[in-house]
Specification:
Shape: globular
Largest sheet: 8 strands, parallel, barrel
Radius of gyration: 19 Å
Strand order of the largest sheet: 1-2-3-4-5-6-7-8
Order of helices and strands: HEHEHEHEHHHEHHEHHEHEHH
């Protein structure tokens, strides 16, 4: 079966740098995949990405060694199966609030007798190899998102879920849930305590702590906290960052000439 780069890096004790795509399009995914990440996540929850776009983007990522990951729209067995059958080798599941929900997510990603996933991997066999069915349960990566107060209260129970590979902090939603504002790189004391709780739960149960960040400096800081799967924003944010160059150019063009 085709190696899963992220799983190999984590097994070696390395920190994974993950990219993030919310804009549909195979070519854009191909460009994103060329930037030097270890993995690239196709976000079908908050992006404008439908199933057809998701498949095209996974195909584009597959031209590289990056691990293709999908952030699901919901904790739904049908959505889990569609993403995996399309060739996702990792899943990030939003709004996991209890160990029962985490267990349901894991079960949806595993074939019987360990789970309830239906057989019919289609594109995944082309991507990963025709021994995919025998190896997928062990190789597919599964991250449960911690982004609510309930999830934070039960973080140790969630982390103990058999078959789960990691917890992934959604900082904007978690901040809202804890009484703060939207955004990334939250470093208020209560948010830092939340991060520490997630990392501690992951360490206790031998899984990986992940988080979404907006700047290289904060990404490095979270690595020092113990996060080993770190996302640095994504395509939408990179494009919006171009506004500064547009403003600077406009100011130069409109400056009075001597």
């Amino acid at each position: 079966m085709r190696p899963v780069l992220v799983r190999s890096l984590l097994a070696e004790g390395r920190t994974v740098l993950n990219g993030w795509s919310v804009i549909p399009g195979g070519f854009l995914a191909e460009v994103m995949a060329s930037l030097g990440w270890d993995s690239l996540t196709v976000d079908v929850q908050h992006g404008m990405i439908g199933q057809t776009d998701m498949v095209a983007m996974l195909q584009a990522i597959s031209t590289t060694t990056l691990t293709p990951i999908v952030r699901l729209a919901a904790n739904d067995p049908t959505l889990v199966g569609q993403a995996l059958d399309a060739g996702a080798m990792g899943l990030i599941c939003p709004l996991i609030n209890s160990p029962e929900e985490a267990a349901a997510f894991v079960a949806a990603s595993r074939y019987p007798p360990k789970g309830i996933r239906s057989s019919g991997a289609t594109r995944a066999m082309i991507y990963a190899g025709f021994d995919y069915g025998a190896n997928a349960d062990a190789e597919v990566l599964r991250f449960a998102m911690i982004e609510t107060a309930d999830a934070l209260r039960r973080v140790e129970e969630i982390a103990a879920t058999p078959g789960l590979d990691g917890l992934y902090v959604g900082p904007s939603d978690l901040s809202l849930a804890l009484g703060g504002g939207q955004g990334f790189d939250k470093d208020e004391p209560h948010m830092l305590e939340a991060y520490q709780a997630v990392v501690a739960a992951c360490r206790k149960h031998g899984i990986t702590a992940g988080i979404h960040t907006a700047t290289p400096a904060f990404a490095a800081r979270m690595s020092e906290f113990g996060f080993r799967f770190i996302t640095l924003v994504g395509d939408f944010n990179f494009i919006l960052a171009g506004r500064a160059a547009v403003r600077q150019t406009r100011s130069l063009l409109e400056a009075p000439t001597k």
